[in-house]
Amino acid sequence: MAELPDMRAGAVPAKGVEGMMDPVLRDRRIWVLMAAAMLTIMSNATITPALPGLQQMFAANPDAALMTRLLITAPSLLVAITAPIAGSITDRIGRIRPLCWGLVLFSVAGTAGLYLGSLEAILASRLALGLGVACIMTAQAALIGDYYEGPVRARLMGYQMAAVNLGGLIFVTAAGAMAAHDPRLPFAIYGLGLILILPALRCLHEPARTIHDGILGEPRAPAEPGWQLNVGLMAVAAGATFVMYYAVPTQLPYLMASVGLDQPQQAGLVLGATMLAAAVLSVASGPLRRWLGRVGTPVTGFMLLAAGFWGMAEAQTMVTQMSFAALNGAGLGLTMPAFVTTALNVTPAHRRGTVSGIITSAIFLGQFLSPLATQPLVTYLGYSGAFHVAAVSYVVLGALLFLTMRRQPGSVPAHPPRKG
Question: Where's the Major facilitator superfamily (MFS) profile domain (predicted)?
Fold first, then answer.
């Protein structure tokens, strides 16, 4: 099968494009990279339905309650610590080898919970899993930056975010069914990483690269002036977004129970509405970015997040909870692709791996810090009060981002709306 050309600067093949599918999706590399992104959602979420069963299985351990919960947060901490290092490595030795090493480590460490005999050993394997996730995420994001430019890159970041959310729906649902039979079974899902290695080797290739001060890179892709500041702003914004956003999976079920919506399936439906809306808006984020611009896109996302959190704090019925949860997911679907796209757009090619690692680190650090930030709010203000604070925080974040970046290059829409 002939290799498809690089889709640079928004160009797409003129021949062979049929139907309504985005032509860029006919590139096999995209499906491999999106599958890699989809896998990373499992670093935290997959074993969540199994936690009660694991705690019961290791009830003889006096620290079972704490350690089973650490199984969820441990990968995030390791990703936050190691992702910048993994990104720097991809800049020096290329993208494909770290991606494949990450897939191997992801599967070996992820499936270790099937057979390890102690919680301590399983916790250690979860730390190793975080290292694998860091390698996968930094390498695949850098490859998207290498292969594609302009509007195509923005659309693909949206598709990637959509894949992550759909992966969450599929894998967590499957894990719940498996955990009902045996709490160890969800660990088997991590073996999917091994299946992806062969397609990665067959479909992906290292971009043509030269040496820049000992680092691999592409001389034709210079940086924007002040790119370090822009990258730093995107990293801070991404981390801050997740500090508050992770109150949804960790605190929303309790908020719903406080107003009488205390059935597990009700919380599942609301969380599903969040993921579905995030997937839809992620796909739309690329085209919307052409109208809203570099700053307008995430600022709009922050306003949707604020409306969603405020509405969930006030909602008393399932219909209103699902509606505002969908607004919340839509906000995430606009913000996160925008942060990654902006960071890659302003960065010189030979630093994309490092920058991908910095953004990845910020996202997972935000996830790790979320319970530490939101639980005190719940203690003093209650669940509704905590969600109100989150809503106000997103308004403040949006205002700060607008004021900071509105004068930066590329902050205006690339293609303003046409009249008529």
Answer: 29-409
State the Cα–Cα distance between residues 187 and 50, nearest whole angstrom. 9
Predicted TM-score (pTM) of the model is 0.73
The beta strands (E) that lie in 281-381 are given as none
Same-domain pairing of 254 and 365 = yes
CATH number, domain of 309, equals 1.20.1250.20
Residue 42: pLDDT band (50, 70, 90) is low
pLDDT for 269 equals 79
* Same structural domain, 187 and 234: no
Type of residue found at 240: A
| Co-location of 164 and 278 in the same domain | no
Same domain, yes or no, for 243 and 200? no
The residue from 177, 207, 237 where one domain ends is 207
Assign 352 to helix, strand or coil.
helix
**At residue 123, does pLDDT exceed 80?**
yes
DSSP state of 5: P
Domain that holds residue 371: 223-410
| First vs last C-alpha separation in the chain | 44
Instruction: Note the pLDDT tens digit of each residue in 361-399.
Output: 898 888 888 888 888 898 899 989 999 999 999 999 999
- Structure token pair of residue 240: 């801050």
pLDDT value, residue 92: 84
Mean pLDDT of 182-205: 91
pLDDT at 341: 82
Rounded CA separation 332/336 (Å) = 6
Give the Cα separation of 220 and 208 in Å (integer): 11
Q: Is residue 185 part of a domain?
A: yes
Angle at 344 between CA 279 and CA 29, to 5 degrees: 60
Q: Clarify whether residues 198 and 72 are in a common domain.
A: yes
Q: What are phi and psi of 316, to 5 degrees?
A: -120, -10
Domain count, the chain: 2
**Mean pLDDT throughout 211-228?**
56
Look at the block and give the residue holding tokens 């997959």: 46
Q: Are residues 65 and 120 in the same domain?
A: yes
Q: Among residues of the chain, what percentage have pLDDT more than 90? A: 27
Instruction: Tell which of 182, 207, 232 closes a domain.
Output: 207
Backbone angles phi, psi at 11, to 5 degrees: -75, 145
Question: In the predicted model, is pLDDT for residue 110 greater than 80?
Answer: yes
